[in-house]
Amino acid sequence: MGAGSEVNQKQFVAFRAYWTPDREAQDLEDDMAQFGLADTWLDAKQVVDADQELCRYMQLIESNTLVETVSKSDPIWLGSFKPVKVAQELVSKVNGVYDWDRNLDDSRPVTRQRPTLLKVNLYPEPATHEYTATDYWENNLLLQRMKKRRVIISQDRHQLFITMATYDDAYAKYLAGETPPKSYLKLASYGPYKITDHKHMYCFAHAVVALAMAADDVLS
Questions:
Q1: Distance between CA 141 and CA 60 in Å, rounded?
Q2: For 28, phi and psi rounded to 5 degrees?
Q3: How many domains does the chain contain in total?
Q4: Which residues partner with 152 through β-bridges?
């Protein structure tokens, strides 16, 4: 099947993947049980609420405060979240103007670039390797043990998306070339989580921590 970055339209159809109607960012909490997050959701909230640096990071977002105006001696110094805020400030600035200083219309329909499922970086940059579809499913220990669920986190400038993917045994065998097509990969996309909205980023942090804790449970 080849590398995910070289997929053409005909090959994409062969993936037998479909997206359900897009969901709002806050809807992931309603759907957490079907993605195996029910056991970690409350614990993740406690972790997020207890992280003081994360709380200060949220404060800077809420007040539209630039990192460069905050010193290490400042009570709202965000510590390890400084690189995150700096990067987000860079993508939130267009033609010298920050999103919160202009009338940014986020009410328009969101055009989402569907992420490729089969491109996997095995090593830190610049050394990379792309798996084939069969390699992707068979050779990654974590993926083998994730109970037929995958997660894709993507970003479109100032907006983040969490896409949950589910499949069955028949689909895995189809990708491995063992059986004719009998089922589909189902994807549900949640978002956008706007990086300039502290409430959105709180929900995003909560979801990511819950996902990380669920993955840790799989490996333990």
A1: 39
A2: -60, -35
A3: 1
A4: 163
As to burial, measured by CB atoms within 10 angstroms (0-12 exposed, 13-18 middle, 19+ buried), residue 122 is exposed
Q: What is the pLDDT of residue 18?
A: 83
Domain that holds residue 21: 4-219
Give, as one character, the DSSP assignment of residue 23: B
Please report where in the chains the tokens 């949950």 appear, as a residue: 164
| pLDDT tens track for 133-158 | 444 444 444 444 455 778 889 888 89
Strand intervals (E) in the chain: 17-19, 93-94, 97-98, 149-156, 159-166, 185-194
131, 134, 140, 144 alpha-carbon torsion, rounded to 10°: 150
87's enclosing H/E stretch is: helix 82-91
Give every CB contact of residue 197 below 8 A, 6+ residues apart in sequence.
61
**Which pair of tokens denotes residue 188?**
């549900």
Q: Which two tokens stand for residue 131?
A: 């798996």
- The winner for highest mean pLDDT among 3-12, 31-40, 123-132, 155-164 is 155-164
Say which residue the tokens 């956008």 belong to.
Answer: 192
Calculate the alpha carbon distances from 14 to 2, 138, 163, 174, 175 in Å.
12, 19, 20, 10, 9
